[in-house]
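Hi P.,

Sorry for the delay on this. The queue was packed all week, but I finally got your sequence through. Input first:
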Amino acid sequence: MTIAFFSALPFEQTWFERYAGNHQITFIPKALTLQTAELAKGHRAICAFVNDDLSQSVLGRLKQIGVSIVAMRSVGLDNVDQEALETLNMKLLHVPGHSPYSVAEQAVTLLLGMIRHLPEAHNRVRAGNFSIDGLMGYDLHGKTVGIIGTGRIGKVVARIMLGFGCHVLAYDIRPDQKLMDDGVRYVLLEKVLQQADIVSLHCPLAPSTYHLINTQSLTSLKPGAILVNTARGPLVDTEVVLAALDAGLLLGYATDVYENERPWFHYDYSDQPITDELLNRLRCHPGVLLTAHQGFLTEEALRQTARFLLNQFSFYDNQQTVLVTKASMC
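Then the structure:
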């Protein structure tokens, strides 16, 4: 099968080339937009990523130039117009979930980095400053951690926090009995926000969760809490969170995502001006620890994604071959 990979990053190519088999892959560094969709001409399928545009207009143009299969190499499908896909009779392939440990461990890494002031400590040592004044952190042991969303990733974070000796509260529309057996206590969302010293977001992006963390929800948050977000940027109203940090309502915000990340994350702007003032405020705020959506970036997760997606392509290709053969025999 001929596949056009949009937003293709160098570290991905190794894994997809390794498991490509008979598939012919064209790696396109540019993001998928209405303008760049033309680059998919001559391909039967496209493979897109979290910040690509899969709106109705883009999907319609892909259909016009002969693309019939759309694959997503990210778990979330919030940037895909699935109704348009169905109307256009285009097949959707996606990864239901790669290694949950990759994102879960990124969340814990960000949290530990923040509460132990690791970025500042590292910068001091590199500069020859070995003083530790102002770097006092606190133990995780005994703290209350709130997990919002206990899907595959949220479950792993909850169990890691239990291992640290934390009290774990959770909110999800579908409570998990095994987590409850392990000691996780499910409560209402408001109770999680009121009681947790640390709140970690692991819910999908949907209309009901857009700006879940907003002015109203922050009024329920325990003063001095830390917020962690490794799920989706738009779960958080960035302006409101920055204001809460400035007012001392939040102690810190550790995040791997940003609500307007599409034009910026995964690209190098080190020698160019960054014109997004909200992003500039976020990345320069002393109470923020920000990474550029790299939670999925482990060998295990990339290997699983490449193998799973390419196996789906092969399976679908084989099914179509069988259908064509049967039709020719009639």
